[in-house]
Amino acid sequence: MIADGAEDEDKWLAASAAAFKQNAFYMQRAIDTNNLKDALKYSAQMLSELRTSKLSPQKYYDLYMRAFDELRKLEIFFMEETRRGCSVIELYELVQHAGNILPRLYLLCTAGSVYIKTKEAPAKEILKDLVEMCRGIQHPLRGLFLRSYLAQISRDKLPDIGSEYEGDADTVTDAVEFVLLNFTEMNKLWVRMQHQGPARDKERREKERGELRDLVGKNLHVLSQLEGVDLDMYRDTVLPRVLEQIVNCRDEIAQYYLVDCIIQVFPDEYHLQTLDVLLGACPQLQPSVDIMTVLSRLMERLSNYAALNAEVLPYFLQVEAFSKLNIAIGKVIEAQEDMPILSAVTLYSSLLKFTLHVHPDRLDYADQVLGSCVKQLTGKGKIDDPRATKEIVSLLSAPLEKYNDVVIALKLTNYPLVVEYLDNETKRVMASVIIRSIMKNNTLITKAEKVEALLELIKGLINDLDEPQGLEVDEDDFEEEQNSVARLIHMLYNDDSEEMFKIISILKKHFLTGGPKRMKFTIPPLVVSSLKLIRRLPVEGDNPFGKEASVTATKIFQFLNQIIEALPSVPSPDLAFRLYLQCAEAANKCDEEPIAYEFFTQAYILYEEEISDSKAQVTALQLIIGTLQRMHVFGVENRDTLTHKATGYSAKLLKKPDQCRAVYACSHLFWLEDHETIHDGERVLLCLKRALKIANSAQQMASTARGSTGSVTLFIEMLNKYLYFYEKGIPQITVESIESLIQLIKNEESVLSDPSAESFFASTLRFMESQKQKGGAISDRYEEIKV
């Protein structure tokens, strides 16, 4: 059916165009022969084709443009006729003899244009006559195009200030009156189109009206271009009259388009000075009008105006722009009871962005907007409209983007109240936005109460929220989120020890209730932050308050013990193990022997009870030996206990090579250069002999199991250890023991079959030779060794 209708329209247009072209030909021939009578006759017949009701607006526009082009030729002809002596008054009356009213009015408008140009009568009188005469066409489509033609030909002939057609006083008022009257009549015709035809064609009619809207809007554009329309006239005459017509037409399409036209075509200065008038009309519009978009565009224009012209900022305060906009938005929402939550949030989002651009120093304004938004969200529960939640995120992100400082956003008391209306997933998104802002701008948060407020805002990332059963969280996303929280911890800092301890105490409170999955990400940076605080504390002798100080190393170590204890249950025993050793080393630097011993004890318990994988045991034992080697705080008894345990663990490793390496590593626990009381050569030798015995055992096992003696790498490693302690001057490490070990390696066949072992051994021998060349005591000692 639609296809058939389109084909019929094409046929009707083709027929009208053919008749139009024929009459236009005869009209042109009459013009060429200066035959006014025939020119009027054929032009009237040509224009009669515009009387059709069979064409859609798009097709009718095609025909209208043909007429417009021909009428321009006719207007030139009329002008030439007046120069040849024809009376323009007679011409003006002559064209009114056309038989049909539509051609008559087109010709009258054309003749009227010539009449104004001759200046034989005031322009205002002729324009008034023309705009009144056009009332004769009440068909919406034909009337719109006729009045559009009138607006087009009169545009450069209005009696405006500075125009050649300017007459006596108040002629600008006449020009404005003419345009307003034409606008009013055109709008009535445009609105009437909506109510013609069956209801089933409503969608088609709305589309056709959309195609014609610029015809109506051009009148407002003409008004905005008039030199005589200053602020006073705009405020007192133009805006009230236009708004009256917009409100009274009660048509949502017209109201939305025309209010938007006002905002777009008139100067920003006018909008600023007439805000109360413009905003007062908004609640009177139809409930279905998309007032959200209109007001958002108004606030965007005013924001850009303020951004480009700093000198106008005082005027915004003078006219109380924020207050008027805030009240107007409230009235609009109140008037439209069924307004979607998306529209309400979008309005407040636009108002907040306007406020941040125009009044960045007025945080109370921004907080007021957020409070109004909270009021609208009250009783709505969690927002489930994805577009609305996206707009809320945009609303909450605006202060962060403007100030580049989360601390300022934390001063907004209503900020966290808005966050509460987001669903859990969006809370996580918003929390990530906040953290990214902090990291991007290197924002340090130095007050405990601000840290508390921040953690409340980002609790979507640091707490297990009430998630629906069966909801799976992407592991990669989860890890990225938690890593961002870990990085955030280092931005929470204060030089004052007491305030810093309050900060880490708040972090502890939140992180320990954050769920086991998060702790392995959040506890380590909290431990590091606490250890940094310990290093900043004055030593007891330098602290005038001594043990009475509110923040002491002992207090922080107790705090650390409490948070690390939570990790084995995560389970992350290996992480807790490492942290205990780090804390023990920190206690060592503070000369806190009981605390250091307790941390070591906890690490040993974890090693025995939780670390069962053989590779993990090897790594853990290396950490134990390395940390214990750096400890100087322990007395003889405690140190013996810990070293004895370490050597015992070494001998119990699963693989013989691992046993050997761990045992010879333990030898370093009995000889510390910077600790004169720990120089026990006997026990060093005992460890090395035990390691050598284990290496022999490993060789035998390899021979039995594989039929080969296995690698000699262990023996070469042992040789290097012997050389190290020999160089340190330990008397128990003799030349004979080194020479016998070298001989043992040379006798092993596998040293030649294993390139890496052969290279390792060769490097060791070259080292020995280089030491001999150095001279001095070291050289003398190495000279004793015969290779």
UniProtKB/TrEMBL annotation:
User: Mind telling me which residue stretches traverse the membrane in this protein?
Assistant: none
Give GO terms for biological process.
protein transport
- Locations listed in the record: Cytoplasm; Endosome membrane; Golgi apparatus, trans-Golgi network membrane; Prevacuolar compartment membrane
- GO cellular component labels: endosome membrane; Golgi apparatus
Q: Which domain of life is it from?
A: Eukaryota
Q: Which InterPro entries match?
A: Vps35, Vps35_C
Among Pfam families, the record links this protein to:
Vps35
Keywords, A to Z, come to: Cytoplasm, Endosome, Golgi apparatus, Membrane, Protein transport, Transport
Q: How does it sit in the membrane?
A: Peripheral membrane protein
Q: Which family does it belong to?
A: Belongs to the VPS35 family.
Which purpose does this protein serve, as stated in its record? Plays a role in vesicular protein sorting.
What name appears for this protein in its UniProt entry? Answer: Vacuolar protein sorting-associated protein 35
